Amino acid sequence: MATINDSFLKFITISLISLFLSVSVQAKAPSKSSVKYAKVHGVVCQFCAQGIKKNLKKVSGVKDVKVDMSTKIVEVQSETPIKDETISKIITDAGFKVVKISTDEKIVSASKSSEKEAEKKNHKHDGNHGHMMKEKNDKAKK
Amino acid sequence: MNRILIPLFVIFLSPQLMAHPVVFKGGSVLTATSNQTMNTLESHYSFSSHFALGALFGRLQLSEELHEFFMIQANVLAWRGNFEDSQANLYIQGATGKPREGDSASRIQLNADWEDRDYYTVFKAGLYDLDGQKVDYYQARLGFSPFRGKYESWQAFYIFQFDYNKEMHKHVIITPVLRLFYQNILIEFGSSLEGKSWLQLMTHF
């Protein structure tokens, strides 16, 4: 009789501990969410840029969209990662230019200086066109 | 809610509505323009960020003649410059249809604008052809914002509008305007130096 009670108590104890642990694990499990940042050019008018948020929020899984007019960054919060191409197409269809998309806001914020450097590099290596134009301009000056 | 408010404004308050010729892909806009000499009601749908198609109903008072017409209108964003801190646009609009009395009616209009968060400029030139009678008109706008609002907050611009049409006015009409917009609702109101008041409402959905 004592043995049965002990076994029963052990069973209950183990069950309760197992139940407690499983609930704790579920409570501590990280929520699945993704955030992407897009640097956008041309966003100078709130009224005109409403199409960005409106159409991005139509995408399945998107929870929230924030547009920062001062940094020109569009933040897309979603349940699962949204493809960069999807975000880029929607913002482009809204009439704006996407400069860079990243999961790291710092990379997107720093894209201003990197973009200008890339433009300079492209100008120098643009099929010698830049070099020819420079020679032409130099001759014209002389 | 906008689909109820907009027609009410048009009917009861006779506001002046001016829409962007092309908005975002899938966007719809309703426009009504009403002033001393011209009344137009336009609506269009943007199939892309570069092209919109719609209809235009207008009334034009020229001297002692009243012209009423209905047209189909196409709006094209011919060029857009998306810069880091500003945006510039060039729109071309063409419309053709039939007047209430007469055989043909058409309109062509050019809009050019540049704006950033602090300044706003627009130049518009248009030409009506109403059964061979040509009517040209011009408008320029220059505005500035006293503050920079956030994306979800309201924004204001002080604008000076200059209108000229030799058939309707003998001189340039100057109208100070206050523009306010909040999310997808834009309101403008002002009064010309001749004392002619007007109201402007715009929304896209």
Q: What is the CATH third-level topology name of chain B?
A: Porin
Going across the biggest sheet of chain A, name each strand in turn: 2-3-1-4
| Total helical segments of chain B | 1
Structural class of chain A: alpha+beta
**Structural class based on helices, strands and sheet pairing of chain B:** mainly beta
Helix content of chain B: under 10%
H and E string of chain A = HEHEEHEHHH
Low-pLDDT sequence parts of chain A? 113-122, 124-134
- Tally of contiguous helical segments of chain A: 6
- Strand count, sense and closure of the main sheet of chain A? 4 strands, antiparallel
How many domains of chain A, as an integer? 3
Under the CATH scheme, the architecture of chain B is Beta Barrel
Terminal residue distance of chain A: 113 Å
Annotation, overall tally of beta strands of chain A: 4
Percentage of residues assigned to helices of chain A: 40-55%
| Domains of chain B, number | 1
Shape of chain A: rod-shaped
Overall average residue pLDDT of chain A: 77
Order of SSEs of chain B, N→C? HEEEEEEEEEEEE
Class of chain B in CATH?
Answer: Mainly Beta
Strand content of chain A: 15-25%
